[in-house]
Design a protein that fits this description.
By secondary structure, this protein is of the alpha/beta class. The protein has a single domain (42-243), classed as Rossmann fold, CATH 3.40.50.300. 22% of the residues lie in helices and 23% in strands. It has five helices and ten strands. A five-stranded parallel β-sheet has the order 5-6-7-3-8, with helices on both faces. Strands 2-1-4 form a three-stranded antiparallel β-sheet, with helices on one face. Strands 9-10 form a two-stranded antiparallel sheet. The N and C termini lie far apart (63 Å).
């Protein structure tokens, strides 16, 4: 079988030492995002505590995950879902406990792709200009694939100030198709999405996991993520000024 005869839906898993250089082959029928070098890694969160200001958000949180897994974080507002994602992304300090990324080959590179609940979009830039910037920043993926994956093809020349909230969310999530990060950290990824947008996101997550990626998402919505581990966070209970 020659590379050119392969279906665009084939994914290739290659485990190589970090010093190995891979020659570039031409696979005209395959999206660039399909070429994720798969290596085994794991995440271990041990007795993690988060304090914001003077308030303890959560404590003694432990969980484990590895490549191909999905973890869905549930809980009421203020339970610490966003804080946990930001700690995993290295954007918040660890108050107590530990977060360990274990990779027997090389350290996680690039770092986890973090999509916060606020869309990083400039109103005066077009959809295409955002995708151009992210493609150059992450040095991966194809703009056409990212636009097609979330139904943005017709809006490439449209200033983002004219987009609906759901279209802005689609654009924000399209960044994921322009990065080769193994770990995705998603904060309320379904916010403002219609049923079609949610289905596109679920497909993207399934493809990423099949390629050896790890997805951790905070959500209030039910998502069709097979074999996902569900973690429910609960805020501390206050009694007479003390935390229980």
């Amino acid at each position: 079988m020659t590379p050119g005869s392969l279906s665009r839906w084939h994914l290739y898993f290659v485990q190589l030492p970090s010093s190995t250089e891979v020659a570039q082959w031409s696979f005209p029928n395959l999206p660039v995002a399909a070429f994720m070098i798969h290596r085994t890694f794991s995440l271990i969160v041990d007795n993690l505590t988060c304090v914001r200001g003077d308030r303890e958000v959560f404590s003694r949180l432990s969980l484990k995950a590895q490549d191909g897994d999905a973890i869905l974080l549930y809980g009421p507002n203020g339970a610490g879902k966003s804080s946990l994602l930001r700690m995993l992304a290295g954007l918040l300090p660890v108050t107590a406990g530990s977060i360990r990324w274990q990779d027997p080959a090389i350290a996680l590179s690039p770092p986890p792709a973090y999509c916060g609940h606020r869309d990083p979009i400039k109103a005066w830039l077009t959809v295409g200009e955002h995708l151009d910037f992210w493609c150059a920043l992450h040095r991966g993926g194809r703009i056409d694939d990212a636009a097609e994956g979330f139904g943005l093809n017709r809006f490439l020349s449209v200033p983002c100030g004219l987009l609906s909230a759901g279209q802005k969310r689609r654009l924000s999530l399209a960044r994921l198709m322009l990065t080769s990060a193994s770990v995705w950290l998603l904060d309320e990824p379904t916010a403002s999405l219609d049923s079609e947008g949610i289905a596109q996101l679920e497909t993207l997550i399934a493809d990423h996991r099949a390629a050896g990626g790890l997805v951790i998402a905070a959500t209030h919505a039910e998502m069709a993520i097979p074999k996902a581990v569900k973690v429910k966070l609960r805020p501390p209970v206050l009694h007479a000024g003390t935390v229980e």
